[in-house]
Design goal:
Helix content: 25-40%
Largest sheet: 6 strands, mixed
Radius of gyration: 23 Å
Low-confidence stretches: none
Number of strands: 14
Strand content: 25-35%
Distance between the termini: 37 Å
Number of helices: 11
Order of helices and strands: EEEHEEHEHHHEHEHEEHEHEEHEH
Shape: elongated
Strand order of the largest sheet: 6-7-8-3-9-10
Length: 298
């Protein structure tokens, strides 16, 4: 059984002339053990997708299922923990009090609640400030609390919406390890982020959204094994970039030239031979491994 599935899902807001489509005909499946990065520009639909999976909103059309149940049903909601930015927690409570309150809804006995809260504090690296009032937390502290709370609530699916951005690099490394361990225990993590470096380190697979549609669904490992040839062109040769984009459909424009993925056996030597034949002067070249940024460039 597919663990999480979106089938032709659309979600709109408003009506008439003010109607806006946040997701359109979105389809994908996900299995336990995966860490799926969800990337795309602002307004691409990342947060809407996360809230649909958590059951906080319903699709305008299509079906979202989690663990075999429609998202939003109590059986599905019990499997999901969502951490959003900005984090939401009662400012008058301490972090420990908030986690204890959440644990009271997840664990039946006092020892189970204590153990669950202890795990959440370790998961979010909260020990040094768990006893402080949430109103006194910095943004990074609040994000770590949101991560801990989502992990506590997540039976099998952890949804993270921009909660790792701006966190201290040393703590962020520890959090990435905790998230990877969570997924390794036969659970699913979906991570929406603008921080492509974090996604590259964590995600086993990446969904790229643009204007509410899934435009790419790729294995991170396969993507990062691909190489890209970057060619800087002399000023007069920049006028040939449009022709080059037609000649190499997978290529993208760069500030001073073009980046061409080395796919289907294409080599830098073959590219340079084409440039010589077309009398296109090259100022400099380099070959690098592909990055997620290449999927997001216009």
């Amino acid at each position: 059984m597919t663990f999480v599935a979106c089938q032709a899902v659309s979600r709109g807001y408003g009506s008439g002339a003010r109607r806006r489509v946040a997701l359109e005909d979105c389809s994908f499946t996900a299995e336990r053990g995966e860490i799926i990065g969800v990337v795309g520009p602002n307004g691409a639909g990342k947060t809407t997708l996360m809230r649909l999976l958590a059951g906080e909103i319903t699709p305008t059309s299509g079906v979202v299922t989690v663990a075999g149940f429609r998202a939003g049903r109590s059986e599905a909601r019990r499997t999901v923990g969502l951490a959003e930015d900005p984090p939401l927690a009662p400012p008058e409570l301490t972090g420990l009090e908030w986690l204890t309150y959440l644990a009271s809804h997840r664990a039946r006995t006092p020892p189970q609640r204590v153990a669950l809260v202890r795990w959440a504090i370790e998961f979010g690296v909260l020990a040094e400030f768990a006893g402080r009032r949430i109103a006194e937390y910095s943004r990074g502290m609040a994000q770590r609390l949101a991560l801990a709370a989502a992990g506590l609530l997540a039976g099998r699916v952890l949804l993270l919406d921009e909660v790792l951005a701006g966190i201290d690099p040393i703590v962020a490394r520890t959090l990435r390890g905790a998230i990877a361990s969570f997924a390794a225990s036969e659970r699913l993590v979906m991570l929406a982020s603008h921080d492509l470096g974090t996604v590259e380190r964590l995600a086993t697979r990446v969904l790229v959204l643009s204007r509410g549609r899934v435009v790419s669904d790729v294995s991170t490992a396969a993507l990062l094994k691909q190489r890209v040839a970057e060619l800087s062109l002399n000023g007069g040769a920049l006028g040939r970039v449009e022709w080059l984009l037609t000649r190499y459909p997978a290529a993208v424009r760069t500030g001073d030239g073009i980046a061409i993925p080395l796919v289907q056996g294409l080599t830098l030597e073959e590219i340079l031979a084409t440039f010589r034949a077309e009398r296109i002067p090259v100022a400099a070249t380099r070959v690098r491994y592909r990055a997620l940024e290449d999927l997001l460039l216009p």
